[in-house]
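Researcher: Sequence of L-serine ammonia-lyase follows. Predict its structure.
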Amino acid sequence: RKLGVRATIYVPSSTPQFMQDILRREGATVCEKVGWNDVPVVAMETEGADCFHKAVEAGHPVTLHDIPAASITDDHRVLVEPSCGATLASVYSGVLDALLREERLQLDKEDAIVLIVCGGAGVSLELLRQWTADVKTKHG
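Model: Prediction complete. Tokens:
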């Protein structure tokens, strides 16, 4: 919105309506269904919140009962919900560079890489305090 650029945001069907409404108020078009079967996807999850990995291993959806709190603030001064910043791990760990170098992720020079870092709009001071208390309780 601030840059004057139109944005289309693709969200999973599980995205709460209030989050979709926030995106729309910011001027974005919100879509839930996409037919992009040919788009390569690299999935990154934080340890302890790796429900996709556990579901693939189990062969069915799973429920995680405890997800550790985490934040990514040092480089970008952005706070995100626990595990939502996992996408950045593909950059910081060198996984993305390795995939490109090994030609396991094939892109043309003009192709774009999109990193989805979600969950910041749901962070509040109250939640941050609760996560801090949870970490202190678990780790002394």
